[in-house]
Specification:
six-stranded parallel β-sheet; binds uridine-diphosphate-N-acetylglucosamine; 13 strands; single chain; 2 domains; alpha/beta
Length: 371
């Protein structure tokens, strides 16, 4: 079976890594190619992850770069169609919910190629999120739907997707976290920055709904800066390029200039996979609008405030350490104070988040070949 694995943006890399490894353990049953769409291209958003995760160099890079949604999606589809026509794969495997995921799914399906989606069935029920549109379009077309939890299975069933397509395999991102946890713990970064375990927070922001509007972004940054000052400890903020561009466009740089006192918001460049894991695993609190980080903090047992009105990952609230807070500055302040005053919560690792999700996927694909 010839498989094309697709990646495009930062959150895809840690998901594909264990899948490539698990598939390669099935010897010559599979031939696999890695296609990078080039949706993310900065060294810190892409190459650093390939190095940390030991990913093979992409066989093909479509080099599409940034653009509006239609531009980016269209460019990926045009370029990926050529790849599919040339390589004639038996299966295209996509992960997550970024534009590359949806674009490659539509392209392959229209050529009659089977498509597998890893991380299927997640739903925020918020059509204002581009990712929700990507998730819905991808899942309705896919032949194999690999899910991370039972809530996702139920979502897919409710949408009428046939039972035989749905496979509850667990969470490949957690495969990667468990594999690299010890290595990440040994990095010298915290020591270099003078951060004691449990004595700092971590902030990440990149959702258009939080960063593209001046008032919203300023409100969040102000709320976090005020609490950090009151708490007397730093909140480290590795800034996504989209967010940095917004901060500069809105003239908000001065809000981040804390002069590196031992408290306040510490602005940093985006970190590599291992550096970021190293930082989050010992944080007292994480504030984020990321999807994946809600799941990672659940397994790490670190309290996570999700700065969004909804989540496609409710399991991280039901079983994990996650709390939905939205982006109202007063609510962020109040919840952050509450979390810092309480003992750290006991996280519970959801079913099948055990480091073996990718092995389950590879076995299901192998069984298909044998049929
Ligand atoms: C994308 C995904 C989002 C994911 C996020 C993780 C979609 C619709 N969005 O959002 O689901 O959570 O990645 O990071 O697919 N930029 C750079 N360098 C890069 C990449 C981007 O400077 O390597 C800047 C560009 O100004 C670009 C902007 O960031 O226009 C947004 O990039 P884009 O890939 O469109 O979306 P993200 O916000 O990164």
């Amino acid at each position: 079976m010839k498989i094309i694995n697709v990646v495009g943006a930062r959150p895809n890399f840690m998901k594909i890594a264990p899948i490539i490894e698990a598939i390669s353990q099935h010897g010559n049953v599979f031939e696999q190619l890695l296609v990078h769409t080039g949706q993310h291209y900065d060294a810190r958003m892409s190459r650093a992850f390939f190095e940390d995760l030991g990913l093979p160099r992409p066989d093909i890079n479509l080099g599409v770069g940034s653009g509006t949604h239609a531009e980016q999606t269209g460019k990926i589809m045009i370029a990926f169609e050529k790849v599919c026509l040339e390589e004639v794969p038996d299966l295209v495997l996509v992960v997550g919910d970024v534009n590359s995921t949806m674009a490659c799914t539509i392209t392959a399906k229209k050529l009659g190629i089977r498509v597998a989606h890893v991380e299927a069935g997640l739903r925020s029920f918020d059509m204002g999120m581009p990712e929700e549109i990507n998730r819905l379009c991808t899942d309705v077309l896919c032949d194999l739907l690999f899910t991370t939890d039972r809530i996702a299975n139920a979502n897919l069933r409710r949408e009428g997707l046939p039972e035989e397509r749905i496979h509850f395999v667990g969470n490949v991102m957690i495969d990667t976290l468990l594999k690299h946890r010890e290595r990440a713990a040994m990095l010298p970064l915290r020591r270099r920055w003078g951060l004691e375990a449990g004595e700092y927070g971590v902030l990440t922001l990149h959702r258009p709904s939080n960063v593209d509007d001046r008032e919203t972004l300023a409100g969040i940054l102000e709320a976090v800066a005020v609490i950090a000052r009151e708490w007397g400890r730093p909140v480290v903020f590795p800034v996504h390029p989209r967010t940095r561009a917004c901060i500069e466009r809105f003239g908000l740089e001065q809000m981040l200039e804390t002069g590196e006192q031992p408290w306040g918001v510490w602005v940093r460049e985006p970190l590599s996979y291992l550096e970021f894991l190293h930082l989050t695993m010992s944080a007292r609190i994480v504030l984020t609008d990321s999807g994946g980080l809600q799941e990672e903090t659940t397994v790490l047992g670190v309290p996570c405030l999700t700065l969004r009105p909804n989540t496609e990952r409710p399991i991280a609230c039901e079983e994990g350490t996650n709390r939905l807070v939205g982006n109202d500055p007063e609510r962020i302040r109040a919840t952050m104070m509450e979390v810092l005053a309480a003992p750290p919560p006991e996280g519970r690792t959801p079913e099948k988040w055990d480091g073996k999700a990718a092995a389950r996927i590879a076995q299901i694909l192998h069984d298909m070949v044998d049929k």
